[in-house]
Each structure stands twice: as structure tokens, then as C-alpha cells.
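User: Batch of two.

Assistant: Item 1 of 2:
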Amino acid sequence: MRTVYFSRDYSPHDHRFLTALAATEHEVYYLRLERSPQGLESRPIPDSIKVVDWWGGRRRLRLADWPRAMYETRRTLRSLSPDLVHAGPVQSPAFLTAVSGGHPLLTMSWGSDLLWKARSGWGRWAARWTLRRSDAFTCDCDAVRRRAVALGAAEDRIFVFPWGVDLDRFQPGPAGPLREQSGFDPDDLVLLSTRPWEPFYGVPELVEAFVQAAADLPALRLWMIGRGSLRPSIERQLQEAGLTGHVRLDEPVTNEQMPAVYRASDLYLSASHGDGSSVSLMEAMACGLPALVSDIPGNREWVLPGDNGWWFTTGSSESLAGGLRKAVEGREALEGMGARSRTIAELRADWDQNFKVLMQAYEFTAARAK
């Protein structure tokens, strides 16, 4: 089957899908809409994937570029004449495919496109327009599925599967030398955050909560791996609180290094305002970490309060600080919680098993053209 995989950029998630697709019998063409200046993924695109040399994929799109993007998408898809177009996020590649008459179209949500960007205005209109013209739809959790149905997706054409992780690579193990090399002592309680340093991911309240909790919990250490526009304000806030020695700010590391990072940590944090099935959360769970996460629908599907972690009120630094205190008070229970996280990951986050659902979606979508 001649398949076009049309995505916004080249991220670790795209690498995951393209690598899996390269191992199938599909003839896969990769259409890239934009290019991030700093780069999102350093691993090469699999050799068998045919990268389309077209107008897009060279830089970030501006508002003025959209008419040209529509024209070029239509022209490129017609020249490729695919049996299936797999496109997402909803308001960008999937929307452009629908506008261009690309068919059959399997629209794939990336979570925030429907949970956050489709709340109102153009984002909501574009999502409704695209979903009603899609031959099938796939997403990573029930929260996104419900949102898609509310926006007009046909319920009998939806395929739900968590994107999952490589359970052989992401698995529990000893902390190893990385914990000590990173400046953490054995008695420290290392809190790990891997989300981008932007307001959408709740970074301001996460840092404020740490400042509140660390005032009377000296064992707390915060390890933030990422980058983003909030770095200057994060550094300023920590300096004013006298906590720069209690926080480590690191640039993103490679996917190969991430299992060691999880194993060197004690508790995974995410304050995101909108997620589907977060891959970083699943990675942390697969490595045996309990989690303290914002109380949003996507997180509720993975974290059970008191079992493998806790929820806190989304957007509330006070609630998050309370969760940190609860983790310290119940520190002796964290190892058992982490073991239950691993069990949940084995049952539901196995990428090799979950990918089979995408292949079922491909067969269903391609049949719509017959």
C-alpha cells in the first residue's frame, strides 16, 4: 500500500511511527510540513522511508504561508497518488489534506490539538471541518476520543491506542552512576520534569510549588530536562528563593539516554494543562517511577491516586506543593508505587502491541476508497 505519512515536523514521536512503518510492507512517503530551528529529533529517518522533497519542511510556517501550503499540499498529494494519507496534528497536516481533497484520510490527533487548541475560534472550526471529512480517526486515549466525537468525528470510525513505549529499553533498574554524577545524594528525593518550559505545560506552577515545598523539605531536589521560553523566569525565581543549588536545569537528552534519567529519579512530575496519553509519563512508569500529575482526563487514565501516584489540581501550585509533601511523608511507599506503574505499563503501554491497532486503522481507511 502506498502511504503518505504527513506530519508537522520530525519529532521523537514521528521517528517512532516511521521506524515501525518501515518494518511493514507499506511503501511509505514522509511529508514534513515544518522544520523547527533547534531540531526536535536527531536520529535519522529510516532508510526505507521515502522523504518527499517538496515546498514544505524547510522552516516554520507563518500565517501568510497557508494559502501556498494548501496549493502545494494538493499538488504534492496528486503527484504521489497514495492509497492512504495518515496525517496529524488535526489543524495542520490533517486540515491541509482535507482541504486538498486527500482521500482516504486517516486523521491522527496529537492530543493537545483537540484537548487544547480546539476549545474555541479557528482551532475549533478547523478541527470540526477536518474531522467531518476524515475517513477514519485515531487517537491515544479515551479523553481525546470523546472530544473528537463531540466535534463531529464518526464514532464507528475511531481507533484508540496509546502510542506506548519500548518496554525492553524503558524498564526498572539501578540508579547507576548518573544520579551521583548529576549531583544528587542518596537521601535526596529527586523530582523529574521532562516537559517543555512553557506555560501550557504548567511549568510556572511547578516551579512555584517546588519553592513552597522545599522551604520546609530540604531533601527535595528538582531535575528539569528541557528547554523553552520560560528559562529566564525559572532561573530568576529559583535565585530569589535561594534554591539554585536544589535544582538542576538540563538541555534535552537523547532518547537513548532517557532510561538512565528515569532510573536516577524518584518521582515523575507533570503539570501539563492538556495531555492525551503522555509518552513521557508512560516511559517513566515503564521505568518503575510513581507519578505526581495534573488532574486532567489523559492523566487519570494512567495514574491511580494512592496506587501508583497522585493527582493535583491543574494550575494550582498550592495543590502541587501539597502533593510533594505527601510524597515525602509517604516516601517508603514510593518503591511499591513504582512497581505498580511498571505493571500498568506492561499491560497497556507496549508499543509493539499497540502499533497493531494502527495497522487495523490503515486497512479500514484504505477500504473506504474502494
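Item 2 of 2:
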Amino acid sequence: MSACLRLAITKIGDLLLCDKITWDEDGNPIDGVKLVLPVYQRPYKWTPKNAIQLMDDILDAQNENLDMSAENKLTYRARKKSNDTIQGINNPVLVTDENDDGIMAGYKFAKAAIAEIVLENPQGFKDFFRHSVYLIRYIVPKDIDLNHYFEIMNSRGEQLEKHEIIKARLIEQLDNGDRAKFNRIWEFCSEMNVYIQQKYDNTDIFGKQHCNFIKGSFDELPDDDTVVVQVKIADLLSSSSADNVPAEEDKIDSFQPIMDFSNFLLLVLKLTRMSAEDFNPKDFNLDDKELINEFDAVQSAGLLTNVFVKQFGFNLLKAKYLLDNFVVHHSNEDDTVQSNPWKLQYWQKSGNKSYLKNLYEGDDQHKLVHLLSMFEVSFTARQRKNYLFYCLLYLFDSIDEYGHIAEDEYSRFVSGLADKYFYDVYLDPDNLNEINTPRPGAFDSNILVDNELYTGLEL
């Protein structure tokens, strides 16, 4: 077996680490092998080069007379977009509203690769692929560290990002139903340039106009209604519906995010830990290079439990709603004299029509835009956005049961935060180093008292 085919099998094996295949006591599959792609699996991202390499390796194996057979099924337990795409590939009658571009592109790449490589006997190649190509099952020893194993297996091929490692650790603490719910929150929140209400289109969470936040806990959030789709590899090969064109998606209102997902996870982790009596916020590092270390600290303290992960998942969704709708972001329009690119707008929907509206009207709106954009251009590094943490902490505590925040109170808070920065940090030589930059912990020492916000001036 060539190296490329082994790598392909290894990568597919990675997808199955957290799910089970049913076997009898003798190690034989019951009703064939059901290969399960977990709900939290990364999107499909193979390129034409990957597809050609795999097909070429399979052709080499065919020429070596590999004589094996198996009856296997592929189960795709995933979000709605992936399910609809898989169904569309196998049934040209189905019309989908969404399309997983990665899966569709991969399917087309594979067909093109077969056409390019297999010239003499394409049907024989397809028959060989259906009946003689299989995935290797590896039984993980009972005492192995699954998180470590997961990371080691993913050291080949496309490297795992830090937030993907964290996701695997967190989701391991949940049962299957909660895993699907957590995965949906994670996937939707990770798209930092899109309003969360557009991704998580649910009136039970955001109200009829999608501009409120009316849930109070992880358990109150609706369950994932994803349908499990089972597909035979042979059906995928014989399908002729890959050229189906799905219906166009609704218009997405995107913007330039002020925060990447890894640093956003750190903000949410700090928010989640603030209620712990022994937590010292001054020791917490908001640099994404410390993402894994900060989650390691949670695990080392014995706090990485089912309850903690649920709270973190709920806080992730709530923080994304607050970030998108109550904090400025940079629009995609050009920066001109006539147009201010910094926007403080919330997203709402009426019927089938969606639109953006200023958060507030009048002086408070202008004041908040100026103050928040001042903070943003002053602290451009994404690991130095302490102000954003304080704003989110204030919003978490101030949002009412309908997802509203009094504009005059929010305006006063941000104004007080700016004054506090100026007077009690930048004008205090004890808080500055030799180049007049705030020392580590200088902000938290002045803004937080007993882990509570304090912006009263001491002139």
C-alpha cells in the first residue's frame, strides 16, 4: 500500500475517533461496517491534487491484484447543509436550499480524477473501488489518552488549529445530544464576519425579529434537528446528480470582524471563569498563543466537567450575539469623508426581509460609536483587547430578559471605562513600564475589584 493511500486512510480514521462502530464478540462487524462522521468534524477541504493522488494510489493497488471485499456504509451525522448536499448527490430529484461547497467540489474532483487517470477500464476501476477498497479499523487501547492520541493522529496532513483541539476536548465531556447542540453553536460562532442570528436562524433564541436573546441556559437551547444520512460508497460513485445547482442562499450581511475566533474563545473562557472564587483575572492571558494553556489550567483544576462545558457553550453563543450587535465593527464599505466605516448596528428580520438598524438613536449612538471605535483603533492587536472583555462583561451583567440594554447606562459605562483607562492606567507611573506601556495586569488591577467591574473615577 503506498504512502498516499495510507495517509488518506489515516485522515479518514481521524474522523471516527469519537464515534463507535458496532462489532460482535469475535471482532466481526454487525450488519456491515457503519462509518460515522461525527457532527463536530471539520469541513471537507480536499483539492483536485488530493483526489488525483488518492485515485492514482487506488489504481496502483488494483494493478497489484489486491483481492478483498467488504460491505460498508457511510453514515454522515452532520449539520443540515452537509446532509442536504449528500442527499442531493444521491438523488437528483431532491432540491436543496443550501450547498456544502467542499463536498460538491470534492465529488467533482474525484470524478475528474477518475476520468483523467483511468482511461482503459473505468468500470473496472469503479468496481474495484466499490468492493476492494476499505478503511483500516484500529482499536484504541483502554488506557490511552484520547486527547493526546487525537492530536498526534492529526499531526500529519493539514495541521489542526488550536481551537480545533480545544473543541475536541470540550465536546468529549458531553453526551451525543448535547454534542450536536454544542457543535452547532461552535460552528456558527466561528464565522466571525457574520451576524450570529443569520447563522443560527431560530426564533426560540432570538425572538420573532431575531434581535433579542431570550434564553437563559444551555439546556434551554433547542436540540440539533440534524437528520442522519446513510450512504453507500457505491451509490456515490454511480450517482449522476453532482451538477445539481441548489437554490441561492439568503443574502449574508457580513462585516470585517475585530476579533479572530481563537482570541474570542479566550475572552469567553475568561468570562466563564470570572464567577469562580479562586480565579484571578490578572493571571489570565488574552493572547491566543496561550489558548491551549488556559484550557489546560481549567482541566488541571478539575473544572473541565459537563456543567462547565455547557456553561461555556452557552456563554459562547451569548457573547457572539453581544459582540455582533452591541460592539462596533468595520463595515465592508470604503472609508471616505462622507462615510464612517465603523458601525454599531444590530441585525433583525421581518418576514423574509432582513435589515440592519442602528443600535440606538441620537447622541448616545454617536457617543458609543466614537468611544468604541477609539478603543478599537487604540488597541489593534487582537491579544490586547482588554476593553472588549470589559464591555462584554458589562453586557453580560446588564442585558435584560428580552435581550435589551438601556442605551444611557451603556453609554455611561463605556465613557467611564475610557476615563478609567486614561486617569488610572496611562497617567499612573506605577502602572507603566520604561517605555510608558501599561504593565501586565495593569488594566485588571484598576477595572476589576473582587472580579466585579469598577469604573468610578478617583481624581
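Confidence is low (pLDDT under 50) at residues 1-23, 240-249.
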